[in-house]
Specification:
The structure is a homodimer of 352-residue chains. Chain A is of the alpha/beta class. Chain A folds into two domains: 2-55 and 337-346, 5,6-Dimethylbenzimidazole Phosphoribosyltransferase, Chain: A, domain 1 (Orthogonal Bundle), CATH 1.10.1610.10; 60-329, Nicotinate-nucleotide-dimethylbenzimidazole phosphoribosyltransferase (CobT), large domain (Rossmann fold), CATH 3.40.50.10210. Chain A is 50% helix and 9% strand. Chain A contains 14 helices and six strands. Chain A has helices at residues 2-9, 16-27, 37-50, 83-93, 97-105, 146-167, 182-193, 209-226, 233-240, 243-257, 267-279, 296-305, 321-339, 343-346; strands at residues 60-67, 108-115, 126-128, 171-177, 262-264, 287-289. Chain A has a six-stranded parallel beta sheet with strand order 3-2-1-4-5-6, sandwiched between helices. In chain A, helix 3 (37-50) crosses helix 13, helix 6 (146-167) packs across helix 9 (233-240) and helix 9 (233-240) packs antiparallel against helix 11. The longest helix of chain A is centred in the middle third of the chain and has 22 residues, at 146-167. The radius of gyration of chain A is 20 Å and the shape is globular. The model of chain A has no long low-confidence stretch (mean pLDDT 97). At the A-B interface, helix 3, helix 4, helix 5 and helix 13 of A face helix 3, helix 4, helix 5 and helix 13 of B.
Chain lengths: 352, 352
């Protein structure tokens, strides 16, 4: 736990004075004032986070964390459980959606086994940080022990710090893989935002009406049996969370501590961000919401954190796919700041 | 006029049978069915447009067309008229917003002088297709002659065909530069969509309340004096349009004729698309709306054409800046189609 507390303690508020200076610089560039809208905001916030007046978004890392979920035994997903490890191998071979979009935006995918139910073959692109072989069925008891919840966060911190030290990181995106993991995510969002389960639960990878009703009942049962404490985010993670979700929490805390912007993907990574911001409210200013997914609870969680997504393409794949596109948009904003000519440099007349 | 009619006549409907086949292929890839939402739609439509089952978005061209407007004499813009040619030089030196974002997405900017009020120095990146030295003041009479309206469209067609022949083109984005050109754009959108001028007119590059009131009155006067015929898009272009708008119309028609997707930028390029779709309704299926701009009439025009923008960042710069980002998103969709592994290839189990 000390490692987590230490990480949280070192997170600084973002630098608002530098952000004001950045707005002045943006206003000196050859465009009507404020005419690049949110692109300007993204650039400004990256400056505030990184404390670099000319931030470069070169080293882009997508952490796609995988874990299995005991609750998949309840039949809450359209896909069988073995898809989690099958997809991990697909990531490592470069054939998944996240690989395609990561290449498109020039990012590196770091795949992390946080708690896949199988032992995975070693691979240079895979970090094994397994806390357990899948969580227990939260509909029948706690998803994991308190110690494992803490461990999952600590290993997430380690993953970030390790990559930061060896390769350097300018920005990260969060991604997830875990059959049934919209179920714990709905549970987390319901508890923390004090929402009805029905209002934050939808079809995940594509279940029908009957299965959706069942999924809602399963989540309600999990909350009744476990009674997670909304004021204690680690208790929520332990009782109705997942190992990959814990890893993403750790990764987010470590990024904030290291002044690195974090791009959130869909519902699962947003549930992780929610836990991270409950643990350390300053984290919120380090987060960029890339998209609004098809999962109905996503909007609720983003709204709770005061985050406005960049786009809404009806994505519901996870893996970090939407966040990959978000990285590229933030990078575009930073390039506006660092590459555009000013009115003086270009000898262009200003507004009357 | 023959050149225009010939171009329109050769525009084919997009290939919906190929699009259905493409959806089947998308459904075989390692992701829940439909889980990449609009990215899948973008890929599918590019296939339908290009008739290539594995479309590559390599050769990306942004046509940024410039022209001056006599109506700027009425004080409808925050910027002085000379900014049009000053910004053209800024484009050619690579210092403008569009240059930065074009580089970011790997696109080439082709700057076209359709009707700048000054003679411009020759430059390898500049095409001189000048129809006139700025339009006449539409608040006092027709913005241009019928012959010049037709000429501007023809020159737009020529610009596209020339680039297509010499360099090849996989996708284009439309961009504009012309001080005061939201004024003719509002006039065009008001006439064609049968909207009140107040509902399609806002602050352009950033005018205040009083100037906005004046702008609205100027547009109303222009419509009263000229009485453009809503059923005759060339009449609308002639009476209340602009040379760069005509050029963009031609460029759009030529792209559709050559089975090339067109990404629209902000309000001005959307007004041009509106004229193009009135001339040739099939064009609509070739268009991708990148963003919803801060100009209130933009939404009206997009809605009229049935186009849904990809994002809303409050952009109001023009030049093709939003469309540049749109290119990258469409490219991402195409890569999903062409680069992702199928369930069979990756040995991943399908949904139950």
């Amino acid at each position: 736990m000390d490692r987590i507390l230490e990480t949280i303690r070192d997170i600084k508020p973002i630098d608002t004075r530098l952000m004001e200076e950045t707005q002045n610089r943006l206003d000196s560039l050859t465009k009507p004032r404020g005419s690049l809208g949110r692109l300007e905001d993204f650039a400004k916030r990256v400056v505030g986070i990184t404390r670099k007046v000319n931030p470069k978004i070169d080293k882009k890392v997508i952490f796609t964390m995988a874990g299995d979920h005991g609750v998949s035994d309840e039949g809450v997903s359209a896909f069988p459980k073995e898809v989690t490890h099958q997809m991990v191998y697909n990531f490592l071979r470069g054939g998944a959606g996240i690989n395609v979009l990561a290449r498109h935006v020039g990012a590196r995918v770091v795949v992390v086994d946080m708690g896949v139910a199988q032992d995975l073959e070693p691979h240079p692109g895979l970090l094994i940080k397994k806390v357990g072989y899948g969580t227990r069925n939260m509909a029948k008891g706690e998803a994991m022990s308190k110690e494992d919840a803490i461990q999952s966060i600590i290993r997430g911190i380690e993953v970030f710090e390790q990559e930061m030290e060896h390769e350097g990181i300018d920005i990260i995106a969060l991604g997830d893989m875990g059959i049934a993991n919209t179920t714990p995510s709905s549970a987390i969002v319901a508890v923390i935002t004090d929402s009805r389960v029905e209002d934050v639960t939808s079809r995940g990878s594509g279940i029908g009406d009957e299965q959706l009703m069942k999924k809602i009942l399963v989540i309600k049962r999990a909350l009744e049996i476990n009674r997670p404490d909304p004021k204690d985010p680690i208790d929520v993670l332990q009782k109705v969370g997942g190992y990959e979700i814990g890893g993403l929490v750790g990764c987010t805390l470590a990024a904030a501590r290291n002044s690195v912007p974090v791009v959130i993907d869909g519902f699962i990574t947003t549930a992780a961000s929610l836990i991270a911001t409950c643990l350390a409210p300053l984290v919120k200013d380090y987060l960029f919401a890339s998209h609004n997914s098809a999962e109905i609870g996503h909007r609720v969680a983003l709204h709770y954190m005061g985050l406005k997504p960049m786009f809404d393409f009806g994505l519901r794949l996870g893996e970090g796919t939407g966040a990959a596109l978000g990285i590229s948009i933030i990078e575009a904003g930073c390039k506006i700041l660092t590459e555009m000519a000013s009115f003086n440099e270009a000898d262009v007349s200003r507004a009357n």
